[in-house]
# Entry
Amino acid sequence: MSVPDPNIRALYARLEEVLGAEHADTLMTRLPPPPDELAKQAEMVLRFDDVNLQFKAVGVRFDGLERRFERLEDRLDHIDESMHHMFEMMLKQQKSSTTMMVTAMTALTAIYGGMLVAFVA
# Structure
């Protein structure tokens, strides 16, 4: 076991003498870390908590965007239905106008034809 602190190294050496290397290793691995390492670990936990909160906030924003896109999709579907309905109405109107024009032209042709026959006779 590699120990950088001289006091801890001395403790380990004494434990090794009394308990043996295997038991000394077991005991040393069970000891809590030094206070500065505990502070670092606590800081890391706080940072992870902060990152976690930030990710949750991003998730909430994405949920909001998803709902907005769903509403936009609904609106576009409604516009598509309206455009389809308008197109059908325009086709009906075009057919009606064409029928009316053909009928009027036929009537005018018949009138002019009758007038021509009357004029020639």
In short: Residues 32-120 form one domain.
